[in-house]
Specification:
By secondary structure, the protein is of the alpha+beta class. It has 2 domains: 137 residues, Beta Barrel (OB fold (Dihydrolipoamide Acetyltransferase, E2P)); 258 residues, BirA Bifunctional Protein, domain 2. The chain is 35% helix and 25% strand. It is built from 16 helices and 18 strands. It has an 8-stranded mixed β-sheet, sandwiched between helices. Strands 1-2-3-5-4 form a 5-stranded mixed barrel. It has a 3-stranded antiparallel β-sheet with strand order 7-9-8, with no helix packed on it. Strand 8 and strand 9 form a beta hairpin. The longest helix is centred in the middle third of the chain and has 23 residues.
Length: 493
């Protein structure tokens, strides 16, 4: 049996009294004519006398966040989706019965107010209440005003309370869809078409990641929650849809930290007859446009650094960046054995399945990645870690692939797409060999995708971007849990 605190018991007694009065404790429809911040901004410049003359009536609804009772007249504030607005309520304006109903209200209750706009002596836009409507009785008290939910874990578990108490959390929640709409608008204007592809699949592919595995009872087969949308989107290029994108959930059965959640949102896009350079232009355009639309400037301060997202991001080959930091020029390294020797000299850990390209990437991760501050396109990834990217015709040890880094964090991954079915088949075979050597993130053999390429896929560029990380950057959030409304959490003990 549930046990209630003293405050919760008092609120339940008040609920019973509302029922006795014939008032539904959990309310009905209420017509809202405007929202707090819009009202305050629109009439902020008006004097008390001008508001009296204009005789503006509004109806608002929201949650009571503050009450100052003063006998036959009181002030309280209500919070709606855009912020707070003050209300003046008097027994002379609404009558004794309605005023008595108001006096029984608690902080956290949801109410409706119809009234006239006025300004107090301190110059605050205020609603003079002419009609007070109880809408919802809150049976639990809100956290203490100045501290909200002090336990960070509880903030994420009870996001609904966090959104009530924490204006910054609410700001991020509303910024997220605005950023996504900005991306959609940008791509739609370039002629891309938004599509949807399956979340469940029977083959693991499109990225190097551990999957979540489930079971389809009707077919009696194991299936994966998708780790990427890539292969299905490229099938659409084969079918003649020349520019497509998908914004959707991805699932990877991996660890959690400030930058990773097992369930997250990406955008993947593919453009026929484009290439790596075209994808750099698109990535730069998305980042710059979103930053300007959301924050009104290309400049931002994040994690103690000042950076600019103005167009003109740096573009640098991975090997050149490694040479800048270590003096090692992997262009001149000709074998896996030589690469392993250099790794040993520089104390770079290697695994059993590592070949030349894996070691190049390990050097980048060890000495370069965390040092990148300004937006930088790092291109020229080794073929061993890029099974879906086209080889660099000048040096087939590398691929036409880039990752976009800002402040040591990856924001985008893009290729000149591999459209050679023979090469693709061989890459899949190499992935299977890596799995046999212990790489549990290697791809499956997707023979249907190889057959799709055999029908002919146009030369193309493709890119994936992490939506959650972008939102972290644009909103100044330090952890991915701030920008996902309901992040994955360990169950309570």
């Amino acid at each position: 049996m549930r046990e209630f605190t003293e405050q919760e018991l008092v609120r339940r007694e008040k609920l019973s009294k509302l029922i006795d009065l014939g008032i539904d404790p959990f309310g009905h429809k209420y017509d809202v004519s405007g929202f707090s911040s819009e009202i305050k901004e629109k009439y902020a410049a008006k004097t008390h006398e001008e508001l009296e003359e204009l005789n503006i009536e509004v109806s608002v609804a929201g949650r009571i966040m503050f009450i100052r009772k003063m006998g036959k007249a009181s002030f309280f504030s209500i919070k709606d989706k855009l912020g707070n607005i003050q209300v003046y309520i008097s027994i002379n304006d609404i009558g004794e019965e309605a005023y008595t109903l108001f006096k029984s209200a608690d902080i956290g209750d949801i109410v409706g107010v119809r009234g006239k706009l006025m300004k107090t002596g301190t110059g605050e836009i205020t609603i003079k209440c002419l009609e007070y409507t109880h809408l919802v009785k809150a049976l639990k008290p809100l956290p203490e005003k100045f501290h909200g939910l002090s336990d960070v874990e509880e903030r994420y578990r009870r996001r609904y309370v966090d959104l009530i108490m924490n204006d910054e959390a609410r700001k991020i929640a509303f910024a997220r869809p605005k950023i996504i709409r900005s991306i959609q608008k940008y791509l739609d204007n370039l002629g891309y078409v938004e599509v949807e592809t399956p979340i469940l699949g029977s083959i693991l592919g499109g990225a190097a990641a551990r999957p979540f595995i489930t079971h389809h009872n009707a077919q009696d087969i194991d299936m994966y929650l998708r780790i990427a949308t890539e292969l299905n989107l490229k099938r659409l290029l084969v079918g003649g849809m020349d520019a497509v994108y998908e914004i959707g959930r991805i699932f990877r059965n991996e660890g959690m930290d400030k930058k990773h959640n097992p369930e997250f949102t990406t955008i993947e896009l593919y453009k026929a007859f484009s290439d790596l350079e075209g994808m750099m232009d698109i990535a730069e355009g998305i980042m710059s446009t979103c930053q300007m639309e959301v924050n009104g400037t290309y400049e931002l301060d994040y994690l103690g650094h000042h950076i600019s997202l103005a167009p003109g991001f740096r573009r640098a080959h991975m090997v050149d960046l490694i040479k800048e930091k270590t003096g090692v020029d992997f262009f001149k390294v000709t074998s896996t054995e030589e690469a392993k020797k250099i790794a040993l000299e520089h104390k770079v850990p290697i695994e059993e399945h590592f070949l030349y390209g894996h070691i190049v990437n390990a050097f980048f991760e060890e000495f370069v990645e965390d040092t990148i501050v300004d937006p930088t396109f790092v291109y020229g990834h080794p073929v061993e870690i890029s099974p879906l990217a086209k080889k660099d015709p000048k040096d087939p040890r590398f691929t036409e692939r880039f990752e976009l880094f800002v402040l040591g964090c990856e924001y985008a991954n893009a290729f000149t797409e591999l459209n050679d079915p023979i090469d693709q088949y061989q890459r899949f075979e190499s992935q299977l060999k890596e799995r046999d050597l212990g790489n549990d993130e290697a791809n499956d053999m997707d023979i249907d995708f190889v057959e799709a390429l055999e029908y002919g896929m146009p030369p193309a560029g493709g890119m994936g971007m992490g939506i959650d990380r972008m939102i972290m950057l644009f909103t100044g959030s330090e952890t991915i849990r701030e920008v996902i409304l309901f992040p994955t959490m360990k169950p309570r003990d």
